[in-house]
Every structure is written in structure tokens, then in C-alpha cells.
Amino acid sequence: MGVVENLKEINRLVPPGVTLVAVSKTKPDEMILEAYDAGHRDFGENKVQDLASRRERLPADIRWHMIGHLQSNKVKYLAPFVHMIHGVDSLKLLSVINKEAVKNHRIIDCLLQVYIARETTKFGLTRDELFQLLESETFGQLQNVRIRGVMGMATYTENSDQIRDEFRLLKLIFEEIKGAFFSGNDYFDQRSFGMSGDYRLAIEEGSTMLRIGSLIFGARNY
Ligand SMILES: *Cc1c(COP(=O)(O)O)cnc(C)c1O
Q1: Residues enclosing ligand 1, CB less than 6 A?
Q2: Is 0.70 surpassed by the pTM of this model?
Q3: Is 95 helix (H, G, I), strand (E, B) or coil?
Q4: From the alpha carbon of 215, which atom of ligand 1 is closest?
Q5: Alpha carbon distance 213, 189 (integer Å)
Q6: What's the gap in Å between 151 CA and the centre of ligand 1?
């Protein structure tokens, strides 16, 4: 099946209010344009270089999501245009994003990446680290970043009970943080979880942003 058919299939299951981020990494611009021409606007990349070069080549109204691990020294390349940064996992990175946002006269939407997997290879903040970050004086001074919610990646496993548990943990942490730091703040409303292999579970467990690549664009060969 083609990109547009795949998108349609998935969109049938995506509840209203949930954003489908089409993860286009390693795929040609033409495939993005197919989806774009069918009305899709949210696309995700995990490398700054790819995000920046695609932004130059492709329509200006695409909403570009940075979904991968972001290094502080590269923030400046995406600060002028990025729609949302999903993987913020340190106060240092957040401070740099804020600084670059100021330079560009922007408020940049960010998600805090939470460590939920049982693997040791995934990035993210533990619950304690999250609280430390949000309680810190430095964080309180950052005026040009807007924390929209949390992002997480479940363990890469066939065990759907485990994935479900990890998604539930993320939702719980989201609610705890919302209560403690963002109550009465309408912007803190996003939970980014669910990829090609687990997006149905993610929808059931309350994801508001699905990041789906291979199911839309086909398997990647690196
Ligand atoms: C690649 C990637 C995805 C999408 O993965 P698929 O399994 O192809 O859907 C989602 N999130 C992140 C952070 C990724 O790097």
C-alpha cells in the first residue's frame, strides 16, 4: 500500500484531538509530499540536520517535530522553526532551547522525556529527576519554553502487558506533574507515546501524540 492509504488506515483509529506525527526519517521528500498533498501537516525527524534541510526544501506550513535525542550545540539550527521538541531530558538542554528561543523571538513548545522502559538504553528523566528539574529555580526563570507535557518510549518487546504498564506509568506521572506544577495551566496537555508497533495500545492508554514511521512509510533500511 502507498503512503496515503497507510495514513488513512491509521487515521481511522486515531481519536479526535490526538495528533498523528508522521515520522519520515530516512525516507525521500517525495513520500512526505504525498502525505502533505493528502492534507497531513505534522512530521517528525530524529536528526537536526535532516529536520533543517527538509524544512528548506518542503512547504513552509509543515509542523516539524524533533523527536530524537537533541544535543545542546545543535538547538540553534532548529530554534527558528521547530514546532515541538519531544525529547527534552535535562535542564541544561532546556536552558539552551530557552536561550535560542529568545534569540528567535519565539516560545518553543517542549515535552519532557520520561524514562519508562525497563531497558537501560533509552533516554529520559526518572520521576525524581523530573521533580528536581521542575522545582529548580533555573527552570522557573525560563520564559521562552513552554512545557506541553511528557514523552516516552516503551520497552521494545512483544509483551503487550509490559508496554501497557509502561504507558500507564507515563500517564500517571503526567497527571502527578500536572497536579503539582501545572494545575490550571491549559497548555500542559500532551502525552507523546506510541509508535508503529504499539500505537493501538497507546491510544487505549491515553496517548495524545502518536509518532508513527514505518507503518506509514514502510520499513527503514539503515
Ligand atoms: C523512529 C522513531 C519513531 C517511529 O518508529 P516506527 O517504529 O517506525 O513507527 C517514533 N519515535 C521515535 C523517537 C523514533 O526515533
Answers
A1: 23, 25, 46, 67-68, 195-197, 211-215
A2: yes
A3: helix
A4: 9
A5: 23
A6: 12
